Amino acid sequence: MTKQLYDGPSPLYTPEKIEELRTKLLDSTAERALIIVLGGKGGVGKTNCAMQMADFLASLGPLLTIDADPANGHFYRAFTQEGPGGQREPSRAGIRPIQHRLRAEDHTGRIDLTACQDMLAVIGEAPERFVVVDFPAGDTDTTQRCAEIIVEECRENKIRLIVAVIVGPVDPTPLKVLPSLLPLLRDCDRPVLAKNTHTGLNFEYLESSEIYRQLQALPGIRITEIEPIGERITEALRVHNVPWDVLATATPMRIRVEARRLRRNFHNMWLEAIAHDAV
């Protein structure tokens, strides 16, 4: 599958609808929105969810996407294509994709707090109203130390901070990582816990835990479920780096019809998860 430059807002929305949706996400106290997507470990669907949100927000206006997980790289490649000289360039009008290293280059591989500050400086100076960051998987202890920096920078720059944590079924990893992420979820403007049902529906390990009860008590918490994606579309997303706008508009019908349905469902799901309480 080859990408094409997708020019203009999604045909899903009229200009009037776009303005209505922007109002649901931003207000006079927050002129911009930053969405950070986290996962306790690789393979829980973190990058896929970041791509879903990026596709939705790019339909509403200029978007900056930051791939802070270069070991993965799928988030960056989803919105770029190979240009002259082998350099990658944006593949969709209205999306400015960049990569930003957050991990230290020494043997520890931990998230570098200075690099986190540098990334927030980039976000603070960015002209785009929406920013989506695919955060590195793992090392949640250092992410906890970044929490205060992230929250304060967003408050100073009138940026609405949305933090989405993606968890999978059966695997007990979230019981270890969510306590470290709790301060960031508690202090952000919208905490979201998204259960990825792609590989199963059994979240009993999580729902019966103390950390889950603490999350449920957070003001403004949204707990949602991510609809499974078929293997054909998953392959297009992960192997061929085809983004949702192309899957839903410029692929063979056997893919396009299902991708269009899923795309609409994901837009609605994420809107409900991150919209203001008053909406």
Determine the fraction of residues in helical runs and give it as a percent range: 40-55%
What is the number of helical segments per DSSP (H or I, 4+ residues)? 11
The tally of strands reads 9
Order of helices and strands: HEHEHEEEHEHEHEHHEHHH
Indicate the radius of gyration in whole angstroms.
18 Å
Helix-strand blueprint:
Elements: H1 15-25, E1 32-39, H2 46-58, E2 63-67, H3 74-78, E3 80-82, E4 88-90, E5 95-99, H4 113-125, E6 130-134, H5 140-156, E7 159-167, H6 173-187, E8 190-196, H7 204-207, H8 210-216, E9 222-226, H9 231-238, H10 244-247, H11 253-274
Parallel strand pairs: 1-6, 1-7, 2-5, 2-6, 7-8, 8-9
Antiparallel strand pairs: 3-4
Helix pairs in contact: 2-11, 4-5, 5-6
List keywords for this structure.
9 strands, alpha/beta, 11 helices, single chain, 43% helix, 7-stranded parallel sheet, 279 residues
Give a short synopsis of this structure.
It is built from eleven helices and nine strands.
Structure description:
- With 279 residues, the protein is an alpha/beta fold.
- The protein has a single domain (15-274), classed as Rossmann fold, CATH 3.40.50.300.
- It is built from eleven helices and nine strands.
- It has helices spanning 15-25, 46-58, 74-78, 113-125, 140-156, 173-187, 204-207, 210-216, 231-238, 244-247, 253-274; strands at residues 32-39, 63-67, 80-82, 88-90, 95-99, 130-134, 159-167, 190-196, 222-226.
- The strands form two sheets. It has a seven-stranded parallel β-sheet with strand order 5-2-6-1-7-8-9, with helices on both faces. Strands 3-4 form a two-stranded antiparallel ribbon.
- Helix 5 packs parallel to helix 6.
- The longest helix is centred in the last third of the chain and has 22 residues, at 253-274.
- The protein is globular, with a radius of gyration of 18 Å.
